[in-house]
Amino acid sequence: MPKLIVVDRAGRESQIDASDGASVMEAVRDAGMDELLALCGGCCSCATCHVFIDDDWFDAVGAPEGDENDLLDSSEHRTAHSRLSCQVRMTSARDGLRIVIAPED
């Protein structure tokens, strides 16, 4: 079971278990963390699950494309390492992935 490191908006870091194949958004939600609104439920239609991928992991995760990229354009907090957590899947190769929850728009 891959581990996910989550930094919340207050700067607190937590390590949570993620099911292989689950999205980062699902892992955060299932761990009981409530800072990701994820209003669309993971359908890539709202951008309320915006996160920043840690520098060391961004190349492995990759850049957003298509609709995800367009939705991130609506955020005033977008950075070069922004992703929608509903579009990033956890795998054993991503064990230890570290994300920071973006400020709320």
Strand order of the largest sheet: 2-1-5-3-4
State the helix count: 3
Structural class of the helices, strands and pairings? alpha+beta
Shape: globular
CA radius of gyration: 12 Å
Q: What is the rounded distance between the termini?
A: 32 Å
Helix content: 10-25%
Order of helices and strands: EEHEHHEE
- What is the H level of CATH, i.e. the homologous superfamily? Beta-grasp domain
Number of strands: 5
- Structurally, how many domains make up the residues? 1
Fraction of residues in β-strands: 15-25%
What quaternary form is this? single chain
- Class, according to the CATH hierarchy? Alpha Beta
CATH architecture: Roll
Return the average pLDDT rounded to an integer.
96
CATH topology: Ubiquitin-like (UB roll)
Largest sheet: 5 strands, mixed
Describe what is shown at a glance.
By secondary structure, the protein is of the alpha+beta class. The protein has 3 helices and 5 strands.
Layout of helices and strands, plus pairs?
Elements: E1 3-7, E2 13-17, H1 24-30, E3 50-53, H2 55-61, H3 66-72, E4 82-84, E5 97-101
Parallel strand pairs: 1-5
Antiparallel strand pairs: 1-2, 3-4, 3-5
Could you describe the 3D structure shown?
- The chain is α+β, with helices and mostly antiparallel strands.
- The protein has a single domain, classed as Ubiquitin-like (UB roll) (Roll).
- It has three helices and five strands; from the N terminus they run ββαβααββ.
- Strands 2-1-5-3-4 form a five-stranded mixed β-sheet.
- A hairpin with a 5-residue loop joins strand 1 and strand 2 (13-17).
